[in-house]
Amino acid sequence: MIYSAGCIRSYCIILFFFICVVEGVDRDVPEPSDRANKQKCIKPAGNIGDSFTQICVKMTCTRKGRKVYWKESYASDKCCNHNQKWYEMGQKIKQTYATNDCYMVNIYCAKNKASEPEILIDIN
């Protein structure tokens, strides 16, 4: 059988249309609610609920409305607060001498028996 050029063109158009329709149906397009669950924090990449700590700052991937961002808070489970400043466990906060120069007073952030940060005073 010999087909005319117009007939072949029609078949090609129908085939092209069929492929486009099938591709559109097979494509996995997430529902709007799924898209909201797939939002991620960037720089660094993270999923909602992920967190990490840098020194005394805890960063948590949070969503507020449509916005997804890294929320900053202080890691009070890893650091001490003294005069509105944060110190890591093991870090010396202040060292002074008593007025009579007989004693040296050290204030530092240390881990207590419950492994929580605590400000300790050491007198030598």
Describe the structure.
The chain is α+β, with helices and mostly antiparallel strands. It is 23% helix and 43% strand. It has two helices and ten strands; from the N terminus they run ααββββββββββ. It has helices at residues 5-26, 32-37; strands at 40-41, 46-47, 51-54, 57-64, 67-74, 79-82, 85-88, 92-97, 104-111, 117-123. The strands form four sheets. A three-stranded antiparallel β-sheet has the order 3-4-5, with no helix packed on it. The chain has a three-stranded antiparallel β-sheet with strand order 8-9-10, with no helix packed on it. It has a two-stranded antiparallel ribbon with strand order 1-2. It is rod-shaped. It starts with a helix and ends with a strand. Mean pLDDT is 80; it is low at 24-32.
Count, helices: 2
Rg on CA atoms, Å? 32 Å
Low-pLDDT sequence parts: 24-32
| Overall form | rod-shaped
Mean pLDDT: 80
Strand content: 35-45%
The SSE string, one letter per element, is HHEEEEEEEEEE
Amino- and carboxy-terminal Cα gap: 107 Å
Query: What is the total tally of β strands?
Result: 10
Strand order of the largest sheet: 3-4-5
Structural class: alpha+beta
Largest sheet: 3 strands, antiparallel
Helix amount: 10-25%
Write the layout of secondary structure elements.
Blueprint: H1 5-26, H2 32-37, E1 40-41, E2 46-47, E3 51-54, E4 57-64, E5 67-74, E6 79-82, E7 85-88, E8 92-97, E9 104-111, E10 117-123
How would you sum up this structure in a few lines?
With 124 residues, this protein is of the alpha+beta class. It has helices at 5-26, 32-37, and strands spanning 40-41, 46-47, 51-54, 57-64, 67-74, 79-82, 85-88, 92-97, 104-111, 117-123. The longest helix is centred in the first third of the chain and has 22 residues, at 5-26.
